[in-house]
């Protein structure tokens, strides 16, 4: 019992100073008062956007054609192959079609017959008209020519005129038929429609080609691509379609010539947004007389991004986000304020922002959701 009493007395002696030190909590709170968080701020800047953006693009030929035959025949010769450079009017392929020779002979024979009939009709008309005129002259003397004979001669001349007109129509039809066969024979020689390069050759001599030769004959004989002029197709994002104009010069690069830049003007704007990619195809006219640039190549376009009115910019680190929205932290009267913003274009280390901000507002340079809305802070102006 004595030992237990001594232990209780010692415990009470140790507890008294502790209770005395924690009395009211006021002295301890004054010694460990929390200091305000210190942040570095920058000013919101207003300026006109004028900066390039790199966009992917592709070079396409301005003109390309699959050369197919207009008539059915066998390939006799092909004078070009893949990689051949051709000029407009150069002979590419010659076909042979024996049935066209027979059709030509038949058309020539029909024309000769029609012309012979026309000549006979014209001769008969001339004779009958002469007879009529002779009778008409003699009829001026009363009683020399019967009136019925004069009427018959006149009707015969009129009928001859109709026969001549019909013969002329037959002759013209025969000429058109012969001309058609001649044109069909001209199709047996296939020439280049424009200057370019043969990129594909599918068929060889002996192959049957043409509209009536079946699926195999429907295959193009060769493909020609124009290389003197190219189309640079740029899929421009929807957010940038309002700041471009035709004739504006744009620079681009291609992997085949690293370190070199090429230039071309904006030539055609489709004015139609692709619903799948949310981009608008824009074409640049690329003149390529030396053939250095190849159709099908990918390119990187330095697309000019400009606005005709000033917008607000902050450092990219000043914009942060949580699960609901993006925001910057504005500091007013020593307190923070979360301001919801929508970001635009990024230029170097700055980003375009849209929201309830004004030029000159102080925002935290390095924003974080750990800095709560309405928190008291001490500020230090950072280097802009």
Characteristics of this structure?
Elongation Factor Tu (Ef-tu), domain 3; elongated; conserved putative lor/sdh protein from methanococcus maripaludis s2 fold; four-stranded antiparallel beta sheet; OB fold (Dihydrolipoamide Acetyltransferase, E2P); 384 residues; disordered N terminus; single chain; 21 strands
CATH architecture of the largest domain: Beta Barrel
- Number of helical segments with 4 or more residues: 4
CATH superfamily of the largest domain: Efflux pump adaptor protein, beta barrel domain
Number of domains: 4
Name the CATH class of the largest domain: Mainly Beta
What is the CA-CA span between the terminal residues?
78 Å
What is the ordering of alpha helices and beta strands? HHEEEEEEHHEEEEEEEEEEEEEEE
Strand content: 35-45%
Would you tell me the overall average pLDDT? Answer: 86
Major sheet description: 6 strands, antiparallel, barrel
Folded structure, characterized:
The protein is of the alpha+beta class and 384 residues long. It has helices at residues 2-21, 26-31, 98-138, 147-186, and strands at residues 37-43, 45-61, 64-67, 73-78, 85-86, 91-96, 189-191, 196-201, 208-209, 222-225, 229-237, 249-253, 262-269, 279-287, 298-315, 320-321, 326-332, 335-347, 350-355, 362-364, 377-381. The protein has 4 helices and 21 strands. A 6-stranded antiparallel barrel has the order 2-11-14-13-12-15. The chain has a 4-stranded antiparallel sheet with strand order 3-10-8-5, with no helix packed on it. Mean pLDDT is 86; it is low at 1-34.
């Amino acid at each position: 019992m004595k030992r237990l009493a001594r232990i209780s007395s010692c415990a009470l002696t140790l507890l008294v100073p502790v209770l005395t030190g924690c009395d009211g909590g006021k002295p301890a709170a004054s010694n460990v008062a929390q200091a305000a968080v210190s942040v570095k701020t920058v000013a919101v800047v207003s300026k006109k956007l004028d900066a390039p953006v790199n966009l992917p693009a592709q070079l396409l030929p301005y003109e390309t054609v699959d050369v197919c035959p207009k008539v059915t025949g066998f390939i006799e010769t092909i004078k070009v192959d893949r990689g051949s450079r051709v000029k407009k009017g150069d002979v590419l392929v010659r076909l042979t079609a024996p049935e066209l020779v027979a059709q030509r002979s038949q058309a020539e024979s029909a024309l000769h017959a029609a012309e012979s009939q026309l000549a006979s009709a014209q001769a008969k008309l001339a004779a009958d008209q002469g007879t009529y005129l002779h009778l008409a002259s003699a009829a001026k003397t009363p009683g020399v020519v019967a009136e019925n004979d004069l009427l018959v001669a006149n009707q015969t001349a009129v009928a001859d005129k109709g026969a001549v007109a019909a013969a002329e129509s037959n002759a013209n039809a025969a000429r058109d038929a012969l001309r058609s066969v001649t044109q069909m024979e001209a199709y047996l020689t296939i020439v280049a429609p424009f200057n370019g390069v043969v990129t594909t050759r599918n068929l060889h001599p002996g192959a049957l080609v043409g509209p009536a030769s079946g699926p195999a004959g429907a295959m193009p004989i060769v493909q020609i691509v124009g290389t003197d002029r190219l189309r640079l197709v740029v899929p421009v994002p929807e957010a940038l379609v309002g700041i471009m104009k035709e004739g504006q010069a744009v620079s681009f690069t291609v992997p085949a010539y690293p370190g070199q830049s090429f230039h071309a003007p904006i030539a055609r704007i489709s004015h139609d947004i692709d619903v799948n990619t949310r981009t608008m195809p824009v074409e640049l006219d690329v003149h390529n007389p030396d053939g250095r640039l190849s159709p099908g190549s990918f390119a990187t376009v330095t697309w000019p991004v400009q606005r005709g009115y000033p917008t607000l910019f902050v450092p990219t680190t000043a914009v942060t986000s949580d699960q609901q929205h993006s925001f910057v932290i504005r500091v007013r009267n020593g307190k923070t304020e979360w301001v919801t913003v929508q970001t635009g274009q990024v230029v170097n280390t700055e980003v375009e922002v849209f929201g309830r901000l004004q030029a000159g507002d102080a925002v935290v340079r390095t924003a974080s959701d750990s800095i709560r809305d309405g928190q008291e802070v001490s500020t230090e102006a950072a280097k802009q």
